[in-house]
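Backbone-to-sequence.
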């Protein structure tokens, strides 16, 4: 409440000088008028009249002076307290309302100006929304991004929470949205994102139409560009880190390693041959990868998954020796021979000259992918990760063994007949 004690003596003295008589007749007249003005001024001070009356739409800070069963009384610095009605409290979360106490500072909007009795109506709910509109405008002006939860969807896109407002993210601004979907597929895709937390950028604010439009695509693009710059400053070839598979192509998979995507080439997914990335990986899978190449100029990062897995070539020379006959599986046939798997992650080459007997006109047609056969180990080079194999020599060894076995059997028969005689 305003009172005369709020004004200093200098102000009163200055006001009293309005009535000073300078001796000029006009001054006498002015002094009479000024004296009347001063008397009215003192009356205002004594009655505590408000000079800063609230106007409809004003955003004010107030103090709760009384909590009533169905309303609140809030003082916003004027003579009369404002009323926050039950209808406004019903718009707020119950936990927030239950926590309101006398002496607490709250932000309110004047929703209705004073009646004849001088009372006026306040709204906390509108004030909270107004603050959010101000925040949304500030975010759009600054270009900053913020994180929000998806709470719903419609035909055009996603609905997200923005404190006490609702934001809208058009489907065209949602990342990783499949293209050319059916209506049911689109609905299922959008519904599946409810509950997700999204990094978003405000791109449109229209208070009158209550439009708050946001973009995940722009926010992520900017965020990932910043993260990629940071990664190139801190990453080194050889670093091992965890990533998430974000997408796959026939030539490999894109792995998010903390704001930037690296390429995991199909040849670096596993020690065993991988025909397609989806045979081993799936979207959203967490994988350990090693950085094998960095190109800051092209902003490219090459990754390897197989190089953080146990290397099957370690100790290969202790498991396979020259002259061993082993079971192998043909994995692919090429112009110069065929590759055969000895164990997962270890392949050897059967040269075209070692595929079949020299009498075979077209040795490449004698084997096919998936065939299981025997091969003789010719050489093992652990450093170069190469094994030379021969199916032809394995066949010869088998024939020789069969001949030897037949000869041994014949000799046994001869010995047996000689003993009977």
């Amino acid at each position: 409440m305003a009172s005369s004690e709020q004004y200093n003596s200098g102000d009163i003295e200055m006001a009293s000088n309005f009535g000073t008589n300078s001796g000029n007749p006009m001054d006498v007249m002015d002094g009479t008028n000024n004296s009347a003005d001063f008397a009215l001024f003192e009356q205002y001070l004594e009655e505590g009249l408000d000079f800063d009356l609230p106007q409809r739409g004003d955003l004010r800070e107030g103090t709760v002076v009384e909590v009533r069963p169905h309303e609140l009384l809030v003082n916003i610095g004027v003579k009369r307290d404002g009323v926050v009605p039950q209808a406004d409290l019903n718009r707020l979360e119950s936990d927030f309302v239950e926590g309101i106490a006398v002496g607490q500072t709250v932000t309110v909007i004047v929703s209705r100006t004073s009646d004849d009795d001088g009372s006026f109506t306040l709204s906390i709910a509108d004030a909270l929304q107004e603050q959010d509109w101000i925040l949304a405008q500030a975010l759009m002006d600054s270009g900053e991004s913020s994180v929000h939860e998806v709470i719903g969807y419609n035909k055009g896109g996603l609905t997200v929470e923005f404190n006490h407002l609702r934001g809208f993210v058009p489907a065209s601004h949602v990342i990783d949205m499949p293209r050319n979907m059916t209506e049911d597929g689109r609905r299922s895709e959008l519904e599946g994102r409810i509950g997700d937390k999204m990094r978003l950028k405000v791109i449109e604010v229209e208070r009158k139409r209550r439009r708050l439009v946001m973009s995940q695509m722009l926010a992520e693009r900017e965020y990932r560009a910043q993260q990629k710059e940071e990664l190139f400053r801190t990453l080194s070839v050889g670093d091992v880190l965890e990533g998430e598979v974000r997408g796959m192509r026939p030539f490999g998979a894109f792995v998010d390693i903390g704001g930037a995507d690296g390429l995991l080439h199909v040849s670096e997914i596993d020690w065993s041959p991988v025909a397609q990335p989806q045979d081993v990986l799936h979207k959203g899978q967490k994988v350990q990868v090693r950085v094998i190449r960095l190109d800051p100029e092209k902003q490219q990062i090459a990754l390897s998954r197989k190089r953080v897995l146990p290397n099957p070539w370690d100790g290969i020379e202790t498991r396979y020796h020259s002259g061993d006959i082993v079971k192998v599986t043909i994995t692919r046939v090429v112009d110069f021979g065929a590759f055969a798997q000895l164990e997962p992650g270890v392949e050897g080459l059967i040269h075209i000259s070692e595929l079949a007997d020299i009498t075979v006109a077209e040795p490449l047609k004698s084997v096919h992918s998936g065939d299981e056969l025997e091969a003789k180990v010719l050489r093992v080079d652990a450093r170069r990760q190469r094994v030379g194999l021969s199916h032809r020599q394995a066949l010869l060894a088998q024939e020789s063994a069969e001949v030897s076995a037949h000869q041994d059997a014949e000799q046994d028969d001869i010995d047996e007949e000689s003993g009977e005689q």
